[in-house]
Amino acid sequence: MDNTWIKLYRKFDEWEWFNVSEMVHLFIYLLINAKNKDKEWHGIIVKRGQLVTGRKIISGKTGISEQTIRTCVKKLEITKE
Question: What's the pTM value of the predicted model, to 2 decimals?
Answer without folding.
Answer: 0.86
